Amino acid sequence: MQDFEFSTCKTLSVSRGGAARLADKVAAMGGRSVLIITDAGLLRSGILQPTLNGFEKAGILVALFSDVQADPPEAVIQAAAAAARSAKADCVIGFGGGSSMDVAKLAALLASSGEILSGVYGVGQAKGPRLRLILVPTTAGTGSEVTPISIVTTAEGGKKGVLSPVLLPDLALLDAELTLGLPSHVTAATGIDAMVHAIEAYTSKQLKNPISDCLAKEALRLLSRSLHKACEAGDDLHGREDMLLGACLAGIAFANAPVAGVHALAYPIGAQFHVPHGLSNALVLPAVARFNLPAAQKEYAELLEIVRPGFQGSEARKAEAFVDYVGGLAPSVGLPVTLREVGIKSEHIGALASDAMKQTRLLVNNPRELTESDAAALYLEVL
Question: Within a 10 A sphere around the Cβ of 343, how many other Cβ atoms?
Answer without folding.
Answer: 11
